[in-house]
Amino acid sequence: MPDDRKNREHQFGGEWTDRKLQVLAKYLQSYTTALKNARFHKLYIDAFAGTGYRDARRDEEEDSPQNILFPDMAEPEPQSFLDGSARLALQTEPQFDQYIFIERSPDRCAHLESLKSEFPGLANKVDIRQGDANDKIQDLCAKDWRSNRAVLFLDPYGMQVEWKTIEAIAQTKAIDLWLLFPLGIGVNRLLTKSGDIPKSWRHRLDLLLGTENWYDEFYTVETTPTLFGDDRERVVKATMETIGRYFTNRLKEIFTGVAEEPGVLRNSANNPLYLLCFAVGNERGKDIALRIAQHLLKEVR
Predict the structure, then answer these.
(1) Parallel, antiparallel, or unpaired for β 41-46 and 98-103?
(2) Cα 102 → chain centroid
């Protein structure tokens, strides 16, 4: 790859990134194949599109504490340049009717524009929108979706996604959602062992989970008698499995169908970073979509 391209590429990921992108690419091909004769306007939406490429690097860098609340401060070590989700979507056959790439960074949006020259046959189908992913998705979902169907890839670097955005996606009844839930890299780290959580961290969890009731689900108080006749209490924090199941059940409250067993994306030390979740918006397409997604998710468990 030319040096000027190396200097501009979006750096993110490791082996777990390979796995999630493999699942996405296979699903996109299955999706467009299944709907190739449908009259719906078919969209692919990428909410954190980056530059179109990605720079694979050590998982340990992504798993660093500073990336939880300040993901843009990460300084990854370059290893190899590979296709990101945006380019994989553009390579999908059969093609989508429209590609919407959302990216907050103006510089990355400028890099996404170069995809139009790389894929000239799709240039008029590529729509690049600069801004906050939550705002842009909510605006997009507020439109009339009766003649549209879409796959949306919601792949944040940390805990940027808000529950009200996920709700807006579900309300379209037309979007299949692939979502990375920041299980180990975000939520589990903000849930302190003592149960004493800073106000700013609580607020971030409220926005992500869409409720303040998560605390009672994630913490219990165990009481045990002592030899001296009194009781001793201790706070018990939920396991990551419990946290993941809680989020899956939250998705079930608003989507037509949800994959029961998300994919677990782990770093090189085998620690869970993210859950790769799948949810279906449309009732008629639910069964086949879930069957395909659940088959693919077996590859990342």
Answers:
(1) parallel
(2) 13
